[in-house]
Amino acid sequence: MDKRTKLMHTAKRLFSEHGFYGTATARIAKEAGVSNGILFHYFPTKDELIKAMYFDIKDRIFHYSLGQVYKGATLKESIYTLWLAAVEWNLENPEDFDFMLQFENSPYYSIEIEKSHKYVQMSVELAEKGIEQNVFKHLTPLLLFQLMSSLVDTTVKFLRINPELQTDIEYKNRLFEIAWDAIKK
Amino acid sequence: MDKRTKLMHTAKRLFSEHGFYGTATARIAKEAGVSNGILFHYFPTKDELIKAMYFDIKDRIFHYSLGQVYKGATLKESIYTLWLAAVEWNLENPEDFDFMLQFENSPYYSIEIEKSHKYVQMSVELAEKGIEQNVFKHLTPLLLFQLMSSLVDTTVKFLRINPELQTDIEYKNRLFEIAWDAIKK
DNA sequence: TGAGAGATTGACTAATCAGTCGGTTTTAAA
DNA sequence: TTTAAAACCGACTGATTAGTCAATCTCTCA
Questions:
Q1: Is the shortest CB-to-strand distance from A1 to strand C under 7 Å?
Q2: In DSSP terms, which residues pair with A136 in a beta bridge?
Q3: Cα–Cα distance list, B41 to A60, B21, B36, B38, B55 (Å)
Q4: Which of A88, A185, B23, B169 is the most exposed place for a label (fewest CB within 10 A)?
């Protein structure tokens, strides 16, 4: 693993555990087993490191999710697949999940950053389709996406403290119905 | 206004603007117009200050909300009243809202802290009632509350970037239906 | 082989930070 | 009026911080 990746892994772990505030750059470098200088070689500032990590995580969840949906699926099937992919990815990557929550609720975050990512753009397009087909409530597509996202987050938080339910696909389906009922007409 | 309150006001503004990380205690004291020492007289550590602010905000939103619900209301009416109270309170107190989002998604937060507050306890009791009456989905009461909360947050974020909709009560009712559909059976 | 570019080091620094402390003023009750 | 506690001040400190830099190493390709 190259040092840039090592740094991001270590940073993710420390940030999710101690927050942006509680994590010194020197500590990241030390625990990653690299020199202090190389951190600033790859990431000019601590903020750049944080932002780079955000885009890296979004990229990974995007490619993971995209691999799951298939062409012939109905709208509800597609939404279900994306919902489930998001839930499971976040459960399997708890540090990424914690990092994202912190980042998206910090002053770093803005609506421009959110809109700039393909993952959001794809989801918004899907929302538009659902509205056109009169399946979704007639609301701003971006809002529908944000509602879904926040329900995914809440679901993940809940399944994290109830791990015995994580393998119960029947229960997960019931959790999906919450999100579906929220946006469907 | 006493100095303790002044400090909390200033801290809230600075934290919501620059985050916990970006706000020095010395700056809080300076902009509050008090000495550095008095901050640590009232709050032994920066963390204590942050936690005290959390409980203060929860208290205020709790008393505000409680004043709105009336005895004879149906379950849906009560939920609507609480939903609307939360949305409007957060819109009117954007700094409190930003602070809460940051806090609740930071490593400071835990499920124990959440459960410890009366606001949460009251909401959970209401959720239990809804489940008993077969009006809500049969899920953990705490989960139903958390779902509602996250939908309130998303709604507030949305109304913040669309201020022209903030006075449109008809539109707000449609936004409430999202949350209602999510939890109702 | 050699030259140039990028990767890597770790000691270093200037600034900033949370928290302390010795002392003064204000408050309120006795 | 006395007294003691609480409020208050701001200079101070030791630790920590993000970020720099001059030097060395490693890789690549001509």
A1: no
A2: A184
A3: 47, 21, 9, 5, 19
A4: B169
